[in-house]
From TrEMBL:
This is Exosome complex component Rrp42. Its main location: cytoplasm. The keyword DNA-binding does not apply. InterPro entries: ExoRNase_PH_dom1, ExoRNase_PH_dom2, ExoRNase_PH_dom2_sf, Exosome_comp_Rrp42_subfam, PNPase/RNase_PH_dom_sf, Ribosomal_Su5_D2-typ_SF, Rrp42_archaea. Belongs to the RNase PH family. Rrp42 subfamily. Non-catalytic component of the exosome, which is a complex involved in RNA degradation. Contributes to the structuring of the Rrp41 active site. It is found in: Cytoplasm. It comes from Methanimicrococcus blatticola. The lineage of its organism: Archaea, Methanobacteriati, Methanobacteriota, Stenosarchaea group, Methanomicrobia.
Length: 264
């Protein structure tokens, strides 16, 4: 009962702030939190990154291993993305197998990477139909203060951009930088009382009527989109959200990833 009362109070508090044109952390509606990106933070990984979106903290490690290609793509490498919701990151997270929430969020990140053709998978083929490199993107949520997906997208791409593929001398495969050819970036917009808000904190995510994550590529094309929440969106609202995502995605790319050049 006490938890329900507290949740109701928080909900009213957030809604009242929105009506006054304010947010709980003092930001403008379309202002991102402070972001930091550090790469090469895990010595035993082929690539890694640690990203902070305010107090949301994400660690991504990239591991590569050799494996058998899929039958329908015998000349291409494989991407697999997984997410761990550390119980210490939030009281809402529990120990055990990946929860549905973690699977859904990792699929959003994976879709952005895969559908943008971010990695040139053909260059990861060692012997066609027999042996390819498999790229594992492992996302660990260290602290959840809201907007895990956007932080995970940024951390995953930063880690991939610094990844090196090991040599396989027995099969004549030289060590190369991971062949990247696109930089997808995710931007989430929520609607609270018909007001669009970027980079939501946890309380804003909990009270929003709907949430839309849009992943854009270098040229602004959309490689992924995921909606959650029961509130419907008008076509013009979706277009405004997409425009915001494209603008902020370009800013994020320039500010935090431009120094990690595509090395494919």
């Amino acid at each position: 009962m006490a938890h329900e009362v507290l949740s109701a109070l928080k909900r009213d508090f957030i809604h009242n702030l929105i009506v006054e044109g304010k947010r709980a952390d003092g930001r403008d509606f379309r202002e991102m939190r402070d972001i930091s990106v550090k790469t090469n933070v895990i010595a035993k990984a082929e690539g890694s990154a640690y990203v902070k979106y305010g107090e949301t903290k994400i660690l991504v490690g990239i591991k590569l291993q050799k494996g058998t290609p899929f039958p329908d793509s015998p000349g291409e490498g494989i991407i697999m993305t997984g997410m761990e919701l550390n119980p210490l990151a939030s009281p809402d997270f529990e120990a055990g197998p990946p929860r549905e929430e973690a699977i859904e969020m990792s699929r959003i990140v994976d879709r952005g990477i895969r559908e943008s053709h971010s990695i040139d998978l053909k260059k990861l083929c060692i012997r066609e139909g027999e042996l390819v490199w498999m790229v594992f993107v492992d996302i660990s949520v260290i602290n959840d203060a809201g907007n895990i997906v956007d932080a995970s997208c940024l951390a995953s791409i930063a880690a991939l951009l610094t990844t090196t593929v090991p040599a396989d001398e027995a099969n004549g495969f030289d060590s190369i930088p991971l062949p990247m050819q696109n930089i997808p970036v995710g931007v989430t917009v929520v609607s609270i009382d018909n007001t669009l808000i970027l980079d939501p904190i946890s309380d804003e995510e909990n009270v929003c009527g709907t949430k839309l994550t849009i992943i854009t590529e270098n040229d602004g094309a959309i490689s992924g989109m995921q909606k959650s929440g029961a509130e419907p969106l008008l076509p013009e609202t979706v277009l405004e959200m997409v425009k915001l995502a494209g603008e902020k995605g370009a800013e994020l790319r320039e500010r935090y990833l431009s120094n990690l050049s595509i090395r494919g």
